[in-house]
Write a structure and sequence with these properties.
Helix content is 47%, strand content 11%. The radius of gyration is 24 Å and the shape is globular. The protein folds into 3 domains: 6-94 and 310-483, Rossmann fold (3-Layer(aba) Sandwich), CATH 3.40.50.10490; 119-279, Glucose-6-phosphate isomerase like protein, domain 1 (Rossmann fold, 3-Layer(aba) Sandwich); 486-521. It has a 6-stranded mixed sheet with strand order 1-2-11-10-8-9, with helices on both faces. A 5-stranded parallel sheet has the order 4-3-5-6-7, sandwiched between helices. Helix 14 packs parallel to helix 17 (456-477). It has 19 helices and 11 strands. The chain has helices at 10-23, 28-34, 38-41, 60-72, 75-83, 120-142, 159-167, 186-193, 213-228, 234-237, 245-251, 275-302, 309-323, 341-353, 385-390, 412-429, 456-477, 488-503, 511-521, and strands at residues 43-46, 49-52, 148-152, 177-181, 201-206, 238-242, 255-258, 328-334, 371-374, 397-402, 446-451. The chain is an alpha/beta fold. Bound molecules: 6-O-phosphono-beta-D-fructofuranose. The site of 6-O-phosphono-beta-D-fructofuranose has 14 residues, from loops.
Protein backbone atom coordinates (compact mmCIF):
# COMPACT_ATOMS: atom_id res chain seq x y z
CA UNK A 1 0.00 0.00 0.00
CA UNK A 2 1.41 3.43 -0.92
CA UNK A 3 0.95 5.85 1.89
CA UNK A 4 1.18 9.60 1.73
CA UNK A 5 3.47 10.92 4.41
CA UNK A 6 1.33 12.80 6.93
CA UNK A 7 3.06 16.16 6.45
CA UNK A 8 2.40 15.96 2.70
CA UNK A 9 -1.37 15.55 3.00
CA UNK A 10 -3.83 18.43 2.49
CA UNK A 11 -5.15 17.80 6.02
CA UNK A 12 -1.72 18.53 7.53
CA UNK A 13 -1.64 21.96 5.88
CA UNK A 14 -5.22 22.60 6.99
CA UNK A 15 -4.29 21.65 10.55
CA UNK A 16 -1.32 24.03 10.46
CA UNK A 17 -3.65 26.79 9.34
CA UNK A 18 -6.19 25.84 12.02
CA UNK A 19 -3.44 26.04 14.62
CA UNK A 20 -2.44 29.52 13.45
CA UNK A 21 -5.96 30.90 13.26
CA UNK A 22 -7.64 29.39 16.31
CA UNK A 23 -5.63 26.49 17.83
CA UNK A 24 -2.89 28.64 19.35
CA UNK A 25 -5.40 30.93 21.11
CA UNK A 26 -7.90 28.20 22.01
CA UNK A 27 -9.35 28.62 25.48
CA UNK A 28 -11.16 25.77 27.17
CA UNK A 29 -13.14 28.00 29.48
CA UNK A 30 -14.45 30.00 26.54
CA UNK A 31 -15.14 26.80 24.58
CA UNK A 32 -17.35 25.45 27.39
CA UNK A 33 -19.08 28.83 27.81
CA UNK A 34 -19.90 28.97 24.10
CA UNK A 35 -20.99 25.38 23.64
CA UNK A 36 -23.34 23.81 26.16
CA UNK A 37 -22.99 20.49 24.30
CA UNK A 38 -19.21 20.34 24.49
CA UNK A 39 -19.11 17.54 27.07
CA UNK A 40 -21.41 15.36 24.92
CA UNK A 41 -19.54 16.19 21.71
CA UNK A 42 -16.20 15.20 23.20
CA UNK A 43 -17.13 12.27 25.38
CA UNK A 44 -17.98 8.75 24.41
CA UNK A 45 -18.37 5.21 25.60
CA UNK A 46 -16.26 2.32 24.38
CA UNK A 47 -16.29 -1.19 25.85
CA UNK A 48 -15.66 -0.91 29.63
CA UNK A 49 -14.33 2.64 29.27
CA UNK A 50 -16.06 6.00 29.29
CA UNK A 51 -13.82 8.77 27.98
CA UNK A 52 -14.21 12.49 28.47
CA UNK A 53 -12.02 14.31 25.94
CA UNK A 54 -13.81 17.64 26.41
CA UNK A 55 -11.04 19.22 28.49
CA UNK A 56 -8.63 19.01 25.58
CA UNK A 57 -7.46 21.93 23.43
CA UNK A 58 -9.53 20.95 20.45
CA UNK A 59 -12.72 22.05 18.76
CA UNK A 60 -15.10 20.19 16.47
CA UNK A 61 -13.53 21.61 13.30
CA UNK A 62 -10.03 20.59 14.33
CA UNK A 63 -11.20 17.08 15.17
CA UNK A 64 -12.73 16.87 11.69
CA UNK A 65 -9.41 17.88 10.16
CA UNK A 66 -7.64 15.24 12.25
CA UNK A 67 -10.11 12.66 10.98
CA UNK A 68 -9.28 13.86 7.45
CA UNK A 69 -5.64 13.31 8.30
CA UNK A 70 -6.45 9.76 9.39
CA UNK A 71 -8.26 9.15 6.11
CA UNK A 72 -5.51 10.69 3.99
CA UNK A 73 -2.79 8.65 5.71
CA UNK A 74 -4.78 5.42 5.42
CA UNK A 75 -5.15 4.63 9.13
CA UNK A 76 -8.23 2.44 8.57
CA UNK A 77 -6.47 0.52 5.77
CA UNK A 78 -3.46 -0.07 7.99
CA UNK A 79 -5.71 -1.22 10.83
CA UNK A 80 -7.44 -3.59 8.42
CA UNK A 81 -4.06 -4.85 7.19
CA UNK A 82 -3.14 -5.66 10.80
CA UNK A 83 -6.41 -7.55 11.33
CA UNK A 84 -5.87 -9.35 8.01
CA UNK A 85 -2.54 -10.69 9.27
CA UNK A 86 -0.41 -8.82 6.73
CA UNK A 87 3.30 -8.37 7.48
CA UNK A 88 2.96 -4.77 8.62
CA UNK A 89 6.10 -5.12 10.75
CA UNK A 90 8.19 -4.98 7.58
CA UNK A 91 11.63 -4.43 9.13
CA UNK A 92 11.28 -7.75 10.96
CA UNK A 93 9.19 -9.41 8.24
CA UNK A 94 6.39 -10.20 10.67
CA UNK A 95 2.64 -9.92 10.98
CA UNK A 96 1.23 -8.14 14.04
CA UNK A 97 -1.43 -10.33 15.59
CA UNK A 98 -1.45 -9.94 19.37
CA UNK A 99 -5.20 -9.25 18.96
CA UNK A 100 -5.64 -12.87 17.77
CA UNK A 101 -4.60 -14.04 21.24
CA UNK A 102 -7.83 -12.60 22.62
CA UNK A 103 -10.10 -13.65 19.75
CA UNK A 104 -12.64 -16.29 20.83
CA UNK A 105 -12.54 -19.67 19.07
CA UNK A 106 -14.39 -19.84 15.77
CA UNK A 107 -17.98 -20.84 16.13
CA UNK A 108 -19.15 -22.85 13.09
CA UNK A 109 -22.65 -21.53 13.72
CA UNK A 110 -21.41 -17.95 13.23
CA UNK A 111 -19.69 -17.71 9.83
CA UNK A 112 -19.48 -13.89 9.93
CA UNK A 113 -16.80 -13.75 12.61
CA UNK A 114 -14.00 -11.22 12.55
CA UNK A 115 -11.14 -13.58 11.76
CA UNK A 116 -10.01 -13.98 8.17
CA UNK A 117 -10.45 -17.56 7.03
CA UNK A 118 -6.73 -18.17 6.45
CA UNK A 119 -6.12 -17.49 10.12
CA UNK A 120 -8.53 -20.11 11.37
CA UNK A 121 -5.74 -22.65 11.83
CA UNK A 122 -3.57 -20.19 13.71
CA UNK A 123 -6.50 -19.30 15.93
CA UNK A 124 -6.99 -22.97 16.66
CA UNK A 125 -3.32 -23.22 17.69
CA UNK A 126 -3.73 -20.13 19.87
CA UNK A 127 -6.58 -21.78 21.75
CA UNK A 128 -4.83 -25.11 22.12
CA UNK A 129 -1.85 -23.29 23.64
CA UNK A 130 -4.08 -21.11 25.81
CA UNK A 131 -5.98 -24.13 27.13
CA UNK A 132 -2.72 -25.87 28.06
CA UNK A 133 -1.36 -22.75 29.73
CA UNK A 134 -4.56 -22.18 31.70
CA UNK A 135 -4.71 -25.85 32.75
CA UNK A 136 -1.17 -25.48 34.12
CA UNK A 137 -2.20 -22.27 35.89
CA UNK A 138 -5.06 -24.12 37.57
CA UNK A 139 -2.72 -26.93 38.65
CA UNK A 140 -0.40 -24.43 40.28
CA UNK A 141 -3.34 -22.65 41.91
CA UNK A 142 -4.57 -25.83 43.51
CA UNK A 143 -1.09 -26.91 44.65
CA UNK A 144 -0.89 -25.55 48.18
CA UNK A 145 2.78 -26.53 48.37
CA UNK A 146 3.64 -23.81 45.86
CA UNK A 147 3.41 -20.55 47.79
CA UNK A 148 5.65 -18.31 45.68
CA UNK A 149 5.77 -17.62 41.96
CA UNK A 150 8.89 -15.81 40.73
CA UNK A 151 8.67 -14.33 37.23
CA UNK A 152 12.09 -13.72 35.69
CA UNK A 153 11.78 -11.50 32.61
CA UNK A 154 12.30 -7.94 31.45
CA UNK A 155 10.57 -5.35 29.25
CA UNK A 156 7.35 -6.81 27.88
CA UNK A 157 8.13 -10.08 29.65
CA UNK A 158 7.88 -8.25 32.96
CA UNK A 159 5.91 -5.01 32.69
CA UNK A 160 2.64 -6.48 31.37
CA UNK A 161 2.21 -9.36 33.82
CA UNK A 162 3.55 -7.32 36.73
CA UNK A 163 1.28 -4.36 36.00
CA UNK A 164 -1.74 -6.65 35.62
CA UNK A 165 -1.08 -8.80 38.71
CA UNK A 166 -0.79 -5.62 40.80
CA UNK A 167 -3.82 -4.00 39.16
CA UNK A 168 -5.99 -7.05 39.79
CA UNK A 169 -4.79 -7.46 43.35
CA UNK A 170 -8.41 -7.73 44.53
CA UNK A 171 -8.81 -10.93 42.47
CA UNK A 172 -5.51 -12.62 43.33
CA UNK A 173 -5.69 -16.05 44.94
CA UNK A 174 -4.91 -15.76 48.65
CA UNK A 175 -1.96 -17.84 49.81
CA UNK A 176 0.26 -17.26 46.78
CA UNK A 177 2.84 -14.53 46.52
CA UNK A 178 4.05 -13.13 43.20
CA UNK A 179 7.54 -11.72 42.67
CA UNK A 180 8.95 -10.08 39.55
CA UNK A 181 12.68 -10.03 38.90
CA UNK A 182 13.76 -8.04 35.86
CA UNK A 183 16.95 -6.11 36.59
CA UNK A 184 20.33 -7.73 36.01
CA UNK A 185 21.35 -5.99 39.24
CA UNK A 186 21.73 -8.99 41.57
CA UNK A 187 20.19 -7.02 44.43
CA UNK A 188 16.77 -7.69 42.99
CA UNK A 189 17.09 -11.46 42.61
CA UNK A 190 19.00 -11.82 45.88
CA UNK A 191 16.26 -10.00 47.74
CA UNK A 192 13.56 -12.30 46.32
CA UNK A 193 15.62 -15.45 46.91
CA UNK A 194 16.04 -14.32 50.51
CA UNK A 195 12.28 -14.48 50.95
CA UNK A 196 11.38 -17.80 49.28
CA UNK A 197 12.07 -21.50 49.80
CA UNK A 198 13.13 -23.77 46.95
CA UNK A 199 10.54 -26.43 47.77
CA UNK A 200 7.62 -23.99 47.60
CA UNK A 201 8.68 -21.81 44.66
CA UNK A 202 7.82 -21.89 40.98
CA UNK A 203 10.20 -19.95 38.73
CA UNK A 204 8.82 -18.72 35.42
CA UNK A 205 11.52 -17.81 32.91
CA UNK A 206 9.73 -15.34 30.63
CA UNK A 207 11.56 -14.33 27.47
CA UNK A 208 10.22 -14.16 23.95
CA UNK A 209 13.70 -14.72 22.49
CA UNK A 210 15.25 -16.64 25.40
CA UNK A 211 18.47 -14.73 24.71
CA UNK A 212 18.00 -11.52 26.70
CA UNK A 213 21.13 -11.19 28.82
CA UNK A 214 19.40 -9.89 31.95
CA UNK A 215 16.86 -12.71 31.96
CA UNK A 216 19.40 -15.41 31.12
CA UNK A 217 21.74 -14.18 33.88
CA UNK A 218 18.93 -14.13 36.45
CA UNK A 219 17.60 -17.49 35.28
CA UNK A 220 21.04 -19.13 35.58
CA UNK A 221 21.49 -17.72 39.07
CA UNK A 222 18.01 -18.88 40.09
CA UNK A 223 18.77 -22.37 38.78
CA UNK A 224 22.10 -22.47 40.62
CA UNK A 225 20.42 -21.27 43.84
CA UNK A 226 17.70 -23.92 43.46
CA UNK A 227 20.34 -26.66 43.11
CA UNK A 228 22.34 -25.27 46.04
CA UNK A 229 19.17 -25.50 48.18
CA UNK A 230 18.96 -29.20 47.34
CA UNK A 231 16.27 -28.73 44.68
CA UNK A 232 16.26 -31.36 41.95
CA UNK A 233 12.79 -31.35 40.40
CA UNK A 234 13.36 -28.73 37.69
CA UNK A 235 10.26 -29.89 35.78
CA UNK A 236 8.07 -28.98 38.74
CA UNK A 237 9.80 -25.77 39.81
CA UNK A 238 10.75 -24.14 36.50
CA UNK A 239 8.68 -23.27 33.45
CA UNK A 240 9.66 -21.25 30.40
CA UNK A 241 7.40 -18.84 28.50
CA UNK A 242 8.99 -18.27 25.12
CA UNK A 243 8.86 -18.47 21.34
CA UNK A 244 12.27 -20.19 21.51
CA UNK A 245 11.31 -23.52 23.05
CA UNK A 246 14.54 -25.18 21.82
CA UNK A 247 16.68 -22.69 23.78
CA UNK A 248 14.54 -23.24 26.87
CA UNK A 249 15.04 -27.00 26.57
CA UNK A 250 18.79 -26.51 26.17
CA UNK A 251 18.73 -24.41 29.30
CA UNK A 252 17.26 -27.42 31.06
CA UNK A 253 13.62 -26.34 31.37
CA UNK A 254 11.22 -28.99 30.17
CA UNK A 255 7.89 -27.34 31.01
CA UNK A 256 7.40 -24.75 28.30
CA UNK A 257 4.56 -22.62 26.97
CA UNK A 258 5.14 -21.16 23.55
CA UNK A 259 3.89 -18.24 21.52
CA UNK A 260 4.62 -16.78 18.11
CA UNK A 261 6.92 -14.23 16.48
CA UNK A 262 3.87 -12.16 15.50
CA UNK A 263 3.43 -11.20 19.16
CA UNK A 264 5.62 -8.21 19.99
CA UNK A 265 7.25 -8.29 23.45
CA UNK A 266 5.31 -5.22 24.65
CA UNK A 267 2.09 -6.78 23.33
CA UNK A 268 2.64 -10.18 24.90
CA UNK A 269 0.72 -10.12 28.20
CA UNK A 270 -2.12 -11.91 26.35
CA UNK A 271 0.15 -14.85 25.48
CA UNK A 272 2.03 -17.40 27.61
CA UNK A 273 3.84 -14.36 29.07
CA UNK A 274 0.56 -13.79 30.96
CA UNK A 275 1.02 -17.04 32.94
CA UNK A 276 1.76 -15.28 36.27
CA UNK A 277 -1.49 -13.37 35.82
CA UNK A 278 -3.36 -16.55 34.94
CA UNK A 279 -2.05 -18.21 38.10
CA UNK A 280 -3.01 -15.15 40.11
CA UNK A 281 -6.56 -14.67 38.82
CA UNK A 282 -7.37 -18.15 37.48
CA UNK A 283 -8.33 -19.50 34.08
CA UNK A 284 -11.79 -17.92 34.06
CA UNK A 285 -10.35 -14.61 35.21
CA UNK A 286 -7.73 -14.69 32.46
CA UNK A 287 -10.43 -15.42 29.89
CA UNK A 288 -12.38 -12.39 31.15
CA UNK A 289 -9.21 -10.29 30.76
CA UNK A 290 -8.93 -11.50 27.14
CA UNK A 291 -12.64 -10.89 26.53
CA UNK A 292 -12.37 -7.28 27.70
CA UNK A 293 -9.52 -6.71 25.26
CA UNK A 294 -11.40 -8.44 22.47
CA UNK A 295 -14.39 -6.15 22.99
CA UNK A 296 -12.05 -3.19 22.52
CA UNK A 297 -10.54 -4.84 19.40
CA UNK A 298 -14.00 -5.09 17.91
CA UNK A 299 -14.71 -1.46 18.75
CA UNK A 300 -11.45 -0.39 17.07
CA UNK A 301 -12.08 -2.63 14.08
CA UNK A 302 -15.68 -1.62 13.42
CA UNK A 303 -16.62 1.74 14.95
CA UNK A 304 -16.71 4.68 12.55
CA UNK A 305 -13.57 6.77 12.88
CA UNK A 306 -15.39 9.71 14.50
CA UNK A 307 -16.75 7.48 17.29
CA UNK A 308 -13.72 5.25 17.55
CA UNK A 309 -11.99 5.90 20.86
CA UNK A 310 -8.49 4.63 19.98
CA UNK A 311 -8.68 6.72 16.80
CA UNK A 312 -9.77 9.86 18.64
CA UNK A 313 -7.07 9.46 21.29
CA UNK A 314 -4.35 8.70 18.76
CA UNK A 315 -5.29 11.72 16.66
CA UNK A 316 -5.30 13.95 19.72
CA UNK A 317 -1.78 12.72 20.41
CA UNK A 318 -0.77 13.82 16.90
CA UNK A 319 -2.42 17.22 17.35
CA UNK A 320 -0.54 17.80 20.59
CA UNK A 321 2.81 16.53 19.40
CA UNK A 322 2.96 18.01 15.91
CA UNK A 323 0.86 21.17 16.04
CA UNK A 324 0.83 22.37 19.65
CA UNK A 325 4.39 21.16 20.21
CA UNK A 326 3.79 19.27 23.48
CA UNK A 327 6.52 16.73 24.08
CA UNK A 328 5.17 14.70 26.95
CA UNK A 329 2.04 13.23 28.50
CA UNK A 330 1.54 12.62 32.18
CA UNK A 331 -0.31 9.46 33.19
CA UNK A 332 -2.34 9.81 36.37
CA UNK A 333 -4.20 6.67 37.43
CA UNK A 334 -6.34 7.40 40.49
CA UNK A 335 -6.18 3.83 41.75
CA UNK A 336 -3.22 2.70 43.80
CA UNK A 337 -3.32 -0.79 42.22
CA UNK A 338 -2.44 0.82 38.88
CA UNK A 339 1.02 1.69 40.18
CA UNK A 340 2.88 0.04 37.28
CA UNK A 341 0.44 1.28 34.64
CA UNK A 342 2.55 4.37 33.78
CA UNK A 343 5.68 2.21 33.41
CA UNK A 344 3.77 -0.25 31.24
CA UNK A 345 2.55 2.58 29.00
CA UNK A 346 6.08 3.98 28.74
CA UNK A 347 7.27 0.85 26.97
CA UNK A 348 4.10 0.59 24.91
CA UNK A 349 4.27 4.14 23.58
CA UNK A 350 7.97 4.91 23.57
CA UNK A 351 9.32 1.59 22.30
CA UNK A 352 6.58 1.50 19.66
CA UNK A 353 6.62 5.07 18.42
CA UNK A 354 9.99 6.45 19.55
CA UNK A 355 11.28 6.40 15.95
CA UNK A 356 12.97 9.05 13.82
CA UNK A 357 12.59 7.35 10.45
CA UNK A 358 9.48 6.21 8.60
CA UNK A 359 8.63 2.63 7.69
CA UNK A 360 10.97 2.93 4.65
CA UNK A 361 13.89 4.22 6.72
CA UNK A 362 13.56 7.85 5.57
CA UNK A 363 14.33 10.49 8.22
CA UNK A 364 11.24 12.30 9.45
CA UNK A 365 11.01 16.08 9.84
CA UNK A 366 8.31 15.93 12.56
CA UNK A 367 8.11 14.67 16.13
CA UNK A 368 6.87 11.21 17.06
CA UNK A 369 6.35 9.56 20.48
CA UNK A 370 5.99 11.90 23.43
CA UNK A 371 7.66 11.15 26.75
CA UNK A 372 5.24 9.37 29.07
CA UNK A 373 5.59 9.58 32.80
CA UNK A 374 3.48 9.50 35.93
CA UNK A 375 2.55 8.04 39.28
CA UNK A 376 -0.73 7.07 40.86
CA UNK A 377 -2.85 9.90 42.20
CA UNK A 378 -3.02 11.36 44.77
CA UNK A 379 0.74 10.83 45.25
CA UNK A 380 1.64 12.76 42.10
CA UNK A 381 -0.26 15.78 43.44
CA UNK A 382 2.27 16.12 46.22
CA UNK A 383 5.26 15.75 43.94
CA UNK A 384 5.08 17.15 40.41
CA UNK A 385 1.57 18.54 40.00
CA UNK A 386 3.05 21.92 40.96
CA UNK A 387 4.78 21.88 37.57
CA UNK A 388 1.65 20.70 35.77
CA UNK A 389 -0.35 23.60 37.18
CA UNK A 390 2.20 26.42 37.16
CA UNK A 391 5.25 25.30 35.21
CA UNK A 392 6.34 26.84 31.93
CA UNK A 393 5.56 23.72 29.87
CA UNK A 394 2.09 22.48 29.07
CA UNK A 395 1.81 18.74 29.70
CA UNK A 396 -1.47 17.03 28.80
CA UNK A 397 -2.57 14.77 31.64
CA UNK A 398 -4.42 11.49 31.18
CA UNK A 399 -6.45 10.64 34.27
CA UNK A 400 -7.91 7.22 34.98
CA UNK A 401 -10.64 7.04 37.62
CA UNK A 402 -12.63 4.06 38.86
CA UNK A 403 -16.20 4.50 40.08
CA UNK A 404 -16.51 1.52 42.40
CA UNK A 405 -14.02 0.36 44.94
CA UNK A 406 -13.19 -3.06 46.36
CA UNK A 407 -12.45 -1.94 49.92
CA UNK A 408 -14.88 -0.78 52.56
CA UNK A 409 -12.90 1.89 54.37
CA UNK A 410 -15.33 4.77 54.79
CA UNK A 411 -14.59 8.13 53.22
CA UNK A 412 -11.50 7.21 51.19
CA UNK A 413 -13.05 6.65 47.81
CA UNK A 414 -15.11 9.85 47.80
CA UNK A 415 -12.00 11.76 48.70
CA UNK A 416 -10.04 10.06 45.92
CA UNK A 417 -12.74 10.83 43.35
CA UNK A 418 -13.04 14.41 44.59
CA UNK A 419 -9.31 14.80 44.08
CA UNK A 420 -9.21 13.47 40.54
CA UNK A 421 -12.13 15.65 39.50
CA UNK A 422 -10.65 18.67 41.23
CA UNK A 423 -7.23 18.25 39.62
CA UNK A 424 -8.69 18.06 36.12
CA UNK A 425 -10.89 21.04 36.94
CA UNK A 426 -8.04 23.10 38.41
CA UNK A 427 -5.82 22.44 35.40
CA UNK A 428 -8.55 23.80 33.16
CA UNK A 429 -10.12 26.67 35.12
CA UNK A 430 -6.96 28.02 36.72
CA UNK A 431 -7.05 30.97 39.06
CA UNK A 432 -6.55 34.62 38.20
CA UNK A 433 -6.02 37.69 40.37
CA UNK A 434 -4.77 35.83 43.42
CA UNK A 435 -1.45 37.56 42.92
CA UNK A 436 1.79 36.41 41.25
CA UNK A 437 2.82 33.13 42.82
CA UNK A 438 -0.77 32.17 43.52
CA UNK A 439 -2.09 32.61 39.99
CA UNK A 440 -2.79 29.54 37.88
CA UNK A 441 -2.88 30.04 34.10
CA UNK A 442 -5.46 27.26 33.60
CA UNK A 443 -6.38 26.13 30.09
CA UNK A 444 -4.21 23.05 30.70
CA UNK A 445 -5.56 20.00 28.89
CA UNK A 446 -6.54 16.64 30.26
CA UNK A 447 -8.32 13.47 29.22
CA UNK A 448 -10.45 11.58 31.70
CA UNK A 449 -10.86 7.80 31.34
CA UNK A 450 -13.50 6.35 33.62
CA UNK A 451 -14.05 2.69 34.49
CA UNK A 452 -17.05 1.45 36.44
CA UNK A 453 -14.77 -0.93 38.30
CA UNK A 454 -11.23 -2.19 37.94
CA UNK A 455 -12.00 -5.74 36.86
CA UNK A 456 -10.32 -8.37 34.74
CA UNK A 457 -12.45 -7.31 31.78
CA UNK A 458 -12.05 -3.58 32.18
CA UNK A 459 -8.28 -3.86 32.60
CA UNK A 460 -8.11 -5.90 29.39
CA UNK A 461 -10.15 -3.27 27.57
CA UNK A 462 -8.09 -0.38 28.93
CA UNK A 463 -4.81 -1.98 27.83
CA UNK A 464 -6.15 -2.84 24.37
CA UNK A 465 -7.39 0.75 24.06
CA UNK A 466 -3.87 1.98 24.74
CA UNK A 467 -2.34 -0.49 22.27
CA UNK A 468 -4.66 0.70 19.51
CA UNK A 469 -4.22 4.41 20.18
CA UNK A 470 -0.45 3.90 19.83
CA UNK A 471 -1.18 2.09 16.57
CA UNK A 472 -3.20 5.08 15.31
CA UNK A 473 -0.57 7.75 15.98
CA UNK A 474 2.16 5.45 14.63
CA UNK A 475 0.10 4.94 11.47
CA UNK A 476 -0.36 8.66 10.93
CA UNK A 477 3.37 9.22 11.46
CA UNK A 478 4.10 6.44 8.94
CA UNK A 479 6.46 4.58 11.23
CA UNK A 480 6.78 0.91 12.05
CA UNK A 481 5.41 0.76 15.59
CA UNK A 482 6.39 -2.89 15.97
CA UNK A 483 10.16 -3.02 15.78
CA UNK A 484 12.67 -1.74 18.36
CA UNK A 485 16.08 -1.43 16.71
CA UNK A 486 16.94 1.38 19.10
CA UNK A 487 17.63 -1.06 21.92
CA UNK A 488 20.32 -2.98 20.01
CA UNK A 489 23.39 -0.72 20.05
CA UNK A 490 23.55 -0.57 23.85
CA UNK A 491 23.32 -4.36 24.03
CA UNK A 492 26.27 -4.77 21.64
CA UNK A 493 28.40 -2.18 23.41
CA UNK A 494 27.65 -3.73 26.81
CA UNK A 495 29.28 -6.97 25.64
CA UNK A 496 32.40 -5.08 24.57
CA UNK A 497 32.53 -3.07 27.79
CA UNK A 498 32.00 -6.19 29.89
CA UNK A 499 35.16 -7.71 28.37
CA UNK A 500 37.07 -4.46 28.89
CA UNK A 501 35.96 -4.26 32.54
CA UNK A 502 37.58 -7.65 33.02
CA UNK A 503 40.75 -6.91 31.04
CA UNK A 504 41.20 -3.18 31.67
CA UNK A 505 41.84 -2.62 27.96
CA UNK A 506 40.61 0.86 27.02
CA UNK A 507 42.17 0.99 23.55
CA UNK A 508 39.98 2.88 21.11
CA UNK A 509 37.44 3.94 23.75
CA UNK A 510 36.24 7.54 24.04
CA UNK A 511 37.84 9.49 26.88
CA UNK A 512 34.82 9.48 29.17
CA UNK A 513 34.08 5.76 28.97
CA UNK A 514 37.79 5.00 29.40
CA UNK A 515 38.04 7.29 32.44
CA UNK A 516 34.96 5.85 34.14
CA UNK A 517 36.02 2.29 33.38
CA UNK A 518 39.41 2.91 34.96
CA UNK A 519 37.81 4.33 38.11
CA UNK A 520 35.46 1.36 38.37
CA UNK A 521 38.43 -1.03 38.15
CA UNK A 522 40.48 0.84 40.75
O1 LIG B 1 15.32 -4.85 24.62
C1 LIG B 1 13.99 -4.63 24.27
C2 LIG B 1 13.21 -5.90 24.26
O2 LIG B 1 13.47 -6.62 23.11
C3 LIG B 1 11.72 -5.63 24.41
O3 LIG B 1 11.10 -5.31 23.22
C4 LIG B 1 11.25 -6.88 25.05
O4 LIG B 1 9.98 -6.73 25.64
C5 LIG B 1 12.35 -7.13 26.04
O5 LIG B 1 13.53 -6.72 25.38
C6 LIG B 1 12.49 -8.53 26.52
O6 LIG B 1 12.72 -9.41 25.47
P1 LIG B 1 12.56 -10.97 25.65
O7 LIG B 1 11.14 -11.24 26.02
O8 LIG B 1 12.94 -11.58 24.34
O9 LIG B 1 13.49 -11.40 26.75
Amino acid sequence: MTRTRCDRTPAWGALQAAYRTQGRAFDLRRAFAMNAGRFEAFSQSAPHVFADLSKNLIDVETEQLLLDLARQTGVAQQRDAMFAGEQINATEGRAVMHWLLRTPPLDPAMPAQSVHRHMAETLHEVHTTLDAMLAFAETVRSDARITDVVNIGIGGSDLGPQMAVLALDAFVLPGKRFHFVSNVDGHELASVLGKVKAESTLFLIASKTFTTIETMTNALSAKAWFAAQGGTDIARHFAALTTNVAAANNFGVKTTFGFWDWVGGRYSVWSAIGLPLAIAIGADGFREFLAGAHAMDEHFRTAPLEQNLPVRLGLLDVWYRNFLGFTSRSIAPYHSALKRYPAYLQQLEMESNGKRVDAHGEALPYGTAPVLWGEPGTNGQHAYFQMLHQGTDVVPVEFVAVKQTTHDLPGHHDLLLANVLAQAQALMVGQADAGGHKDFPGNRPSTFLLLDALTRGSLGALIALQEHRVFVSGSVWGINSFDQWGVELGKVLAKDVQARLASGDVTGLDGSTAGLLARLRD
